[in-house]
Amino acid sequence: MNANSPEATPRPGQAAPGTAAAPGRIVLLTTSHRVAPGLLSWPAWQALHAADQVLCADGTHPQLPYLREAGITVDEASPAAQELVDACAGGRTVVVVATGEGEPALTDGLARLAGTGRVDMPELELLPASYDLPGARLLDLVQVMDRIRAECPWSSRQTHKGLAKYGIEEAYELVEAIEEGDRDELREELGDVLLQVVFHARIAEEDLEAPFSIDDVAGGIVAKLIHRHPHVFGDETATTPEEVKEHWLRTKAVEKQRTSITEGIPLGQPGLALAAKLASRARTANLDIPLPPVEGIGYDLLALAVRAESEGVDPEAALRAAARAYRDAIRETEG
User: Fold this and answer.
1) What would the pLDDT profile of 175-185 be if each residue is shown by its tens digit?
2) Which of 314, 18, 42 is nearest to 178 (CA)?
């Protein structure tokens, strides 16, 4: 046979005469549902355009319309491991656009084939086409909360007022985890506090007169942080924590149009914390305020709270630490 004859020319996917058939290549393409469809990495687009075949088991995969718009033919198929290996025969490259589950049945089947040692396996590559950005799991939390609000008999009936007590409880549990130094508990309690924020924001969406969403909440705090940190996002400078705090309070007073440094301090907080907060505001404003010359337990506690604040001690935390020690002493006596 003449080497230049049509019979001697290999067809696409067929090895040249006298050479071993190349096993080919399988590319498992994974994407994140938290990133807008079509926003794929450049290596992913290269692999898709260069592939001999592109497969996807899910005909409703959100990436498919964008792949086809880019001129990529996608076959809706869910091949078994051996079928996929056969499709790569002759050095062909097959890209599998993974579903949300990541194709575990297919990858397990390929692993079993490779383990037999009897199959000339194609090159296997896991190619992430899009990655989660930091904070991406917050989108999952918002979606889960949406569904719970719509379908849960208890959650669907909750109001801001009804949930208020849980916010206080979760905040105290968070503080306890911090003071105990329990990292696992800290992570869990932070999640519980975050849930309260997302839950209230979800309820707020349903308000007929003044609705707002979790995006409005996040947007508001982002704008506030940028505005109150001109030494980070602007031209001002701050070299000490005290300078940062002074600017924060000054900016906050202008924003709120307050006439007194006491405005905005919640009077419903625990007494020691309230006294310390008032003392902190007075000290920051360089106000020398003498304590009322009245005797009594309340004023004694006030004096202690002011003293603690001036020494950089959180009186609430100090009292809780003392109370825990007292609790331990009680238990030892009981035992």
Assistant:
1) 999 998 999 99
2) 314
Do 309 and 280 meet the contact criterion of CB atoms below 8 Å apart? yes
pTM exceeds 0.70: no
Stretch among 43-52, 77-86, 246-255, 314-323 having the lowest mean pLDDT? 246-255
- Cα–Cα distance, 136 to 149 (Å, whole number): 21
* Banded model confidence at residue 289, pLDDT cuts 50, 70, 90: confident
> Alpha helices, DSSP H only, in 181-296?
183-204, 214-227, 230-233, 241-256, 271-284
Q: What is the mean pLDDT of the chain?
A: 88
Beta bridge partners of residue 75, listed in sequence order:
55
Q: Rounded to whole angstroms, how far apart are CA atoms 315 and 309?
A: 7
CA 229, 233, 235, 240 torsion-angle sign: positive
Cα–Cα distance, 275 to 298 (Å, whole number) = 10
The DSSP secondary-structure symbol of 112 reads H
Domains and their CATH numbers in the chain: 6-128 (3.40.1010.10), 134-227 (1.10.287.1080), 272-315 (no CATH)
Angle, CA 94 vertex, CA 86 and CA 40 arms, to 5°: 160
